[in-house]
């Protein structure tokens, strides 16, 4: 069968594609050299821009974007991957590169949930689409997931303009996009001239829906008696992340300063991603144990009992370079360890935990700022640690109003506005 298919393939001469559209002209020459090299029982081999690439028949059939496979209104897929026969392939010689920039395939059989007398299904794949799915890097770029993080220390973050005016953020797409880029790159941004007790809700909703928690839609960070959270006191509150005892902690946190004239009470922040990367480079064994050893977080107070166990460092195992996805670090909210601490791994974890803490607590790795009245800080709660110095509650008033939204909302807005302002024209999803 392989030989016969190879012979059939000789009937088709490779076709060179040279199509430009207006978008491509704006972004330079995006000529695509697309050639059909060979086929076998499981995949096709194409040459795209001189690179040999293989595409499985099942992947191609599953990815068909025609109106029979994708609902035109909801944009949802109309079949299951498991509906595709394991031995699906093109019908006889019905695969070719057309001169309109498409790879055409007519399939040899219907999906498993379709009747046998249905007509042969045709799928078309543009060279842009095929190029997108040729590498993980191209997929990330087409999804607007390729903007890199910028790891920072006190020295280099002080040279970055992290401030955007409230009016620009609320009423200008470019202002919002500036904040989205800051949050992606550095994990932190400041909004100035924020006036009004409940304006923080508008700031959150500019990116996405407010994440309600048992603390409320918004919450007040003030020194109070019988505090239900250490944040509602005047004592030193060390570096931490919020709500790690939730199954899905919120991704972005907003803190709007309504009053801050006390003695002390400065806020400070640290880039946990940078600390983790330094640990990965300098002590791979410590890094690995922080990626695997279980740490339990809990909140058990005022009729609530939240509890979740997670590792300190979490990698994106599906990324090409095992990049860091998020960090879990909140000493005030740690529960007693719930693993077998008699094993040697516990002491190894503690040593690694010390190394990680030392990087975080190094003042050269921290940004310290006294949040002024009418300023709002936004930070990535799964990356940037936040903390507060002790303050004298009798010396004045310190009142911050906080709120959350989820990372899904942030990533959605970042992709939409990157597509608007920095559109990728030669890739296609």
From TrEMBL:
> Which co-factor is required?
Fe(2+)
Q: Which SUPFAM superfamilies match?
A: Clavaminate synthase-like (SSF51197)
- What does the record give under GO molecular function? 2-oxoglutarate-dependent dioxygenase activity; metal ion binding
Point out the coiled-coil segments of this chain: none
Involved pathway(s): Amine and polyamine biosynthesis; carnitine biosynthesis
Q: Which UniProt keywords apply?
A: Carnitine biosynthesis, Dioxygenase, Iron, Metal-binding, Oxidoreductase
Q: Which residues form the Gamma-butyrobetaine hydroxylase-like N-terminal domain?
A: 49-109
Biological processes annotated in GO: carnitine biosynthetic process
Against Pfam families, the record matches this protein to: GBBH-like_N, TauD
The record's listing under InterPro entries reads: AlphaKG_dependent_hydroxylases, GBBH-like_N, GBBH-like_N_sf, TauD-like_sf, TauD/TfdA-like
Cellular compartments per GO CC = mitochondrion
| Domain TauD/TfdA-like, residue spans | 164-404
The family line of this record is: Belongs to the gamma-BBH/TMLD family.
Protein name as it appears in the record: Gamma-butyrobetaine dioxygenase
Organism, per UniProt? Rotaria magnacalcarata
């Amino acid at each position: 069968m392989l030989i016969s298919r190879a012979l059939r393939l000789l009937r088709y001469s490779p076709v060179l594609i040279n199509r430009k559209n207006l978008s491509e002209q704006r972004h330079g020459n995006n000529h695509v050299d697309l050639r059909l090299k060979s086929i076998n029982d499981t995949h096709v081999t194409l040459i795209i821009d001189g690179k040999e690439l293989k595409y499985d028949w099942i992947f191609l059939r599953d990815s068909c974007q025609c109106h029979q496979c994708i609902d035109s209104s909801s944009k949802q897929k109309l079949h299951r991957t498991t509906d595709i026969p394991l031995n699906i392939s093109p019908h006889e010689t019905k695969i070719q590169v057309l001169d309109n920039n498409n790879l055409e395939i007519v399939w040899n059989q219907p999906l498993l949930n379709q009747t046998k007398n249905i007509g042969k299904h045709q799928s078309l794949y543009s060279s842009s689409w095929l190029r997108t799915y040729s590498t993980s890097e191209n997929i990330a770029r087409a999804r607007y997931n390729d903007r890199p993080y910028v790891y920072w220390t006190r020295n280099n973050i002080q040279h970055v303009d992290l401030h955007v005016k409230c009016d620009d953020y609320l009423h200008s797409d470019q202002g919002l996009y500036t904040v989205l880029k800051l949050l992606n790159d550095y994990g932190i941004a400041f909004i100035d001239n924020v006036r009004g007790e409940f304006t923080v809700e508008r700031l959150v909703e500019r990116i996405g829906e407010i994440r309600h928690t048992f603390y409320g839609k918004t919450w007040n960070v003030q020194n109070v008696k019988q505090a239900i959270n250490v944040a509602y006191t005047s004592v030193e509150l060390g570096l931490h992340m919020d709500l790690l005892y939730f199954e899905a902690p919120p991704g972005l946190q907003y803190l709007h300063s309504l009053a801050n004239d006390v003695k002390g009470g400065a806020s400070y922040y640290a880039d946990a991603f940078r600390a983790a990367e330094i640990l990965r480079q300098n002590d791979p064994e410590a890094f690995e144990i922080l990626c695997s050893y279980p740490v339990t977080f809990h909140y058990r107070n005022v009729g609530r009992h939240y509890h979740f166990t997670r590792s300190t460092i979490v990698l994106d195992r599906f990324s090409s370079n095992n990049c860091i996805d998020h960090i879990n670090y909140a000493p005030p909210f740690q529960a007693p360890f719930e693993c077998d601490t008699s094993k040697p791994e516990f002491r190894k974890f503690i040593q690694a935990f010390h190394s990680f803490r030392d990087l975080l607590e190094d003042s050269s790795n921290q940004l310290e700022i006294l949040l002024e009245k009418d300023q709002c800080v936004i930070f990535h709660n799964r990356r940037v640690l936040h903390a507060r110095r002790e303050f004298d509650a009798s010396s004045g008033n310190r009142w911050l109003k906080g709120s959350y939204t989820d990372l899904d909302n942030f990533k959605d807005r970042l992709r939409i506005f990157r597509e608007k302002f920095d559109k990728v024209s030669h890739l296609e999803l």
